Amino acid sequence: MKIRIETFFVIIMFFFCWMVLFTRFPFWWKAICISLYAGIILFTVAKLWLQNRPVPKTLLWTCLLMLVPVFGYMFYIYSGQLLFKGKLFRSKRASDRELFEALGKNTRPLEVPPTFNDHQRGFVRYLERVTLTDQNQNTSTKILKNGEETFEEVKQRLREAKDFIHLEYYIFRYDRLGQELMEILTAKVKEGVEVRLIYDAFGSFALSEQDKRKMADSGIQIHPFLPLKFGWITQKFNFRNHRKIIVIDGKVGFVGGLNVGVEYLGEDHKIGFWCDTHVLLEGEAVQTLHAVFLLDWKYVSGEKLFEDPRYLVSDPVKGDGLVHVVASGPETRDMGDHFYALISSAIESIWIATPYFIPNQAIMTALKVAAKKGIQVRLMVPESNDGFFTQYATQSYFPELLRAGVELYTYQKGFLHKKVIIVDGDMATIGTANMDLRSFHLNFEVNLFLTGSGSIDDLVTHFEEDLKECRRVRPVAFYKRGLRVKWKESFARLFSGLL
Predict the structure, then answer these.
(1) Are residues 64 and 157 in the same domain?
(2) Is 278 tagged catalytic?
(3) Are both 31 and 105 inside the same structural domain?
(4) Residue 417 annotated to the active site
């Protein structure tokens, strides 16, 4: 009902603008139209202010509503800003909590290894208290570097599937790589293996109806996440499922930064080499990762697979350290809180690799304070990004970071897409979430948090290898950039809260 009222307001506002600008109605008619238009805008601004959002974001939306006729209002309501703080996904949030709490009852009490130091213990306790999921001890992890290594492992594990294969991707292309995976999946369906696929309707927009029919005709069950044809009406098109998940037989899981497409193998000549990181999981944590998929499957299909016990069977293996699968989205606490908690627990070093760096104020302050305390802070981002706003908004943070003593590196070999934070060499997070406000507030994401795991050593090694392909940003050279570039940075920064 509410969205119908707002849509009616949009139509009325267009009508008012038409009357004022393109008709010869008497002045008093136009005055009434202007007054009613202003009344709608002021009413919306008043509701916005009552939400007590961060001041910069409130002022930005206020200016957009008041200064951009009609289209500012349309952008406000259809970007999902009208229904704030998870109201759009209230039913999904309730389902998520119910399942994760049920899983928690079947999990053994956490025993923090005695070898953990104080800051590891503090961060582990934080995650236990604020997330819906549990830490897992009996889990092994294997870090996979870049697309070739990742997809070779994926193909091998898919061929070994016996019962079911569940996949969830932001981008799924039906190109050479996508077709290779489809051939494997189709063969597994013929063997009696269940195959289900969730794809994001926006990220996989290039997936044609013909391609979808081919998948469905081969026996693969597929569903889009938030279809765009409904999204424009329900205000959900701005909320996207950015997760990349594979679960095989409940025993093997994959998660990380790589979608399905030949560009992730470095075969797109415009993009060039693709630097990324993925993780292979085996053991108890796969159950939690699978629960994330099952809840998303229920949301897109209505089918409650988690009511069947065979989909949630735990398969412990010998592992080292703790592995914590954490899902985030508009319906839950945002990933930015967990990143801040991890960063602020650092004693010696903070290493970050991210394709997009548009942090919230808390993370920005934590990084600057850490650097000023003498903690080594390294930030690695791409030399060139894939969008004007993300490119220059990221650069707009460089002056503050350089003044604080943060080491900045820009990746030269190709496009850096890995999403990794390493703290003190003994805690880390890797997954789908970028260091930007979209991943924090709008996207559905999933990350692994590793504490005391041997895989962190591999992340450190890969980070150091990638540093050799970077150019360090030096303060003197950076400050000499032209006024035109500075204007671009400042302009893009204004919209960082909307990216």
Answers:
(1) no
(2) no
(3) no
(4) yes
